[in-house]
Design goal:
The chain has 576 residues and is α+β, with helices and mostly antiparallel strands. The protein folds into three domains: 123 residues, Serine Threonine Protein Phosphatase 5, Tetratricopeptide repeat; 82 residues; 235 residues, PPM-type phosphatase domain (Phosphatase 2c, domain 1), CATH 3.60.40. It contains 16 helices and ten strands. A hairpin with a 4-residue loop joins strand 4 and strand 5. Helix 6 runs antiparallel to helix 7, helix 9 runs antiparallel to helix 10 and helix 12 packs across helix 13.
Length: 576
Amino acid sequence: MNLILKKIYGISILMLIYCFQSLKNDFEILADGYRQQGKEMQAAEYYNKAGYAYWNKGDKERAAQAFEKAYEIFEHAKNNSSCLILSNNLGLIYTEIGNYHRAENVFQKSLQIARQLKNKTEIFNAHINLANVSIDLGNYEVAIQHANEALNIAKEQNNLKNIAKCYSLLAESNEKLGNTKGALQYFELYSAADKKIKQHEMEMLQNLTSEEINKAHIARQVAEIELKIKKGELKLTQDSLQVTEKIALQRKMEISQKTAQLEQKELQLRYERNIRRLVSISLLFVLIFLVILSIMLIRIKKQKEEILRQRNELNIKNKNITDSIFYGQRIQNAMLPDFSTFQDDFEASVIYYPKDIVSGDFYWYLKVQYHYLNYHFFAVVDCTGHGVPGAFMSMIGNRLLNEIVGVRNKIDPSEILYHLNQLLINELHQTGTHTIDGMDIALLRLLKLENQQYEMVFAGAKRPLIVYQHKDRECRVIEGNLIAIGNLRHKSYKSYSEHHLILQSNDVIIAFSDGITDQPNSQRSKFGTSRLINIANETLGSSLEKFMVHIQNSIESFRENEPQRDDITLLGIRLK
């Protein structure tokens, strides 16, 4: 019954998440995903795209929310150019929805950023926007101040249209204040400026017309000259015909010469026929080539359309898969423990870096009461693979640990690992002696004693444990057994050995997956366990928080631009 209720609860949570996501557009969903991954700049770009999408659909409230999120990220990154564009967009949206006070605040930000960038044009635009908003708010004196500031910039740039715009705002503001004389004065200045603008446009039109007339006159002169040339050629042709007739009369008397001319003409005709035949054949080949080329182009076009269709289908499928994985990430995060439940006895901190969106690593905690004693169980588990396959394995491992300890009441770490091995083999239906499906685990049990002492019992499957004893101020490494969970059928829980240790207040326990120690850099050298221990010895004497921050920075600086090799998990527990 409990299992059925859990499934129903899980399905309800997924349906609520889906309904909430459906209210968002695709850009905002991607932006939220990037922000969860810490990719702030990509998130800002997609929030900006989401804002434009909402704005185009008329959803101005959600457009403003998306632009606000993008503005917050760009402002934190000190990207003033992007902040300037976003603040102008927000001001226009708030003006459209009638939120003039909010619009005024945003346009003030635009003015401040434009002054920092020393952009005269944007400073002018900001003053104009503030003047319009001030008129809408009834702050006519403030509107006059902004219009005068804008007028000074327009005069400095000698921009007649901007000058006319300022005069128009000044005339309107003075009229609203009841200053009829001032309003009339600025209206006359606006009319004069507008007249100059129209006069300038007419002069440009007249200059264009005069230029076209000159072109027509030149064309007529060229035509007359060509006509004269043709008349001269005609006269030359007539003279040539007269001379030819005289020569023809003389040649009629010379039969031998005429015969030679006929033979020569026949040869010429034969040559021309051959040329025409050759040209016809060439044209035929060209026509055939064009037909073949057209067929090939049509086929290429169809292939291109098919490729575009398949690419669009792949993009849609990829988006659906990515969305599903993001939902899976939320479900996986929900199964991870909440450290606030045991803050009275322990201080815990974790580094959890999935290689992909979801992880094959997970960390686990469970508190059980056995014979009136409160036992605390912690584990760091590295499942086979990463991404979606590893995430499925992590869900199985988490469920099996909860069943073994919470339901079957097994409290000895070695026995817990033995049962975990047996149950995992049964879950995966493994029949051979070896398999690639399994998990490595560091499992420990803590029991608080008197005088601020703790009993720790540890058992490991291919994972060690680091214990920092505050009294000695150095780390101790406790190795686990070299037998992975799920790889062998063991006859006894004694296959896994237990390590018992009495710890004091302020001692620190560190469990980690091999993703951190096996992480390579650009020279292909690994981060290594020794580097981790050195950092622990240097920093754990101060605080657990300092150690965790140092480890995070060391991993990032070590791997440089090298991609993350595997899922990374490190759990630190300080005894209070």
